[in-house]
Automatic annotation (TrEMBL):
Family: Belongs to the MSOX/MTOX family.
A GO term, aspect molecular function: sarcosine oxidase activity
Domain of life the protein comes from: Eukaryota
Pfam families attached to this UniProt entry: DAO (PF01266)
Residue ranges of domain FAD dependent oxidoreductase in the record: 5-375
Protein name as annotated: FAD dependent oxidoreductase, FAD/NAD(P)-binding domain superfamily
Alphabetical UniProt keywords: FAD, Flavoprotein, Oxidoreductase
Record's keyword annotation contains Kinase: no
Needed co-factor(s): FAD
Amino acid sequence: MNQFDIIIIGAGVMGSSAAYQAAKSGHKTLLLEQFDFLHYRGSSHGESRTIRATYPEPYYTQMVIESEKLWKETELEIGYKVYFKTQQLDLGPKESSSLVAVIDNCEKQLNRYRILDREQANECFSVEIPDDWIAVVTELGGVLKPTKAVAMFQTLAIKHGAVLKDKMEIVDVETDEDRGGVLVSSRLGEKFRGKKCVITAGAWVSKLVQKVSNGRVILPIQPIETTVFYWKIKQGKEIDFTIGAGFPSFASCGEPYIYGTPALEFPDLIKIAIHGGRGCDPDKRTWGAAVGGAEGTAKLVGYLKEWIKSRFGDRINWEDGPVMTQSCLYSITPDEDYIIDFLGGEFNEDVVVAGGFSGHGFKMAPVVGQILVDLAIGGTTAAAQRAEEIKHFKVGRFEGNPGGNVKHFGDQVRLR
Ligand SMILES: Cc1cc2nc3c(=O)[nH]c(=O)nc-3n(C[C@H](O)[C@H](O)[C@H](O)COP(=O)(O)OP(=O)(O)OC[C@H]3O[C@@H](n4cnc5c(N)ncnc54)[C@H](O)[C@@H]3O)c2cc1C
């Protein structure tokens, strides 16, 4: 039987980043994926993810600052770009509690940020906002290329000696009574022996963890099917929405929370979408756009049309609706904070679980990969060293407290 120092289950961005970190640190590493590598059925595929430091929660800002450094270092190692930097623009009503928290956080943690009023926002970014709105501009922003970035981590993991296997659905992880560590079993009967194991199974993580822990651990993670919309930029205005012209990645606080990235992946198209979706079973997707079928989709598109018309006027063709859509999965926790913790029980610190990245995990993958490997290899000692960093991500926060971590600003995700 194959013997590894660390076995990682799930080759999305988190598992692939962890595999790279583990192999690079000299650990004999195995990465297992149920589908093909770089498949489109999870959360880490596609053309763009935003990186931004403008979080209302101070602990995420700190993680993004660290992650940005690691994205750049990893790009240098692979020799091509996955991170396209631009500014980040956050918009919203002056009194929006999440925007107020973002500004507070910028003040404490970011060297450079600016607050723009209606006129300044229009002058700098040609974006229209109401009189009672403001815009916050920060330097740490931009676009990450998801599929390309996952491929980068996998390639580098192989380069550092990791073994990668796809079409390998894992159905169980047990303690190895004879030798210590864990035994990992696939649906087709293959078995792998590992001193340590990391489970990064995305929208499938609750199912797998429930099985592995014999029902002891139920992670409150809701898989959500979400849809990304691309809109046509009007002829003659294409350049305005590019990074080269200074166009930012952006988010609009409030209800609904709307986000977008500069025109980059498809010529003359811009991604503008809503942070939200509909609850689903990841194995029984509808691939539709919204709760409530055609009527729900029309309502969702209606919000976006109104928002685009108000912010960008006639520079984007909102009238005819989106020209392209892509479906993707979120894994949402009740407080939208991640889950990164030991599985405990009979596994003690031999199995680490990471999931519930709640639609905002991609940018953090480099630092999450490091944390996962540290916890798996270093156990309680590593957890003590990283105590401050990981204290918000413990599974135990939901015990007798279904809402999890208390937030001082409104929820952002609604089922749509
Ligand atoms: C539309 C959309 C937009 C987003 N925008 C942003 C953004 O702008 N910025 C940002 O930071 N984040 C964003 N995110 C979130 C980010 O993409 C996710 O947080 C991140 O990709 C989660 O990665 P993951 O590795 O946990 O999950 P996944 O990518 O789903 O990977 C989990 C993997 O585990 C595999 N697996 C599951 N069960 C098993 C098993 N039993 N055996 C073997 N393999 C298994 C799955 O097949 C899958 O490949 C967005 C997400 C979506 C969907």
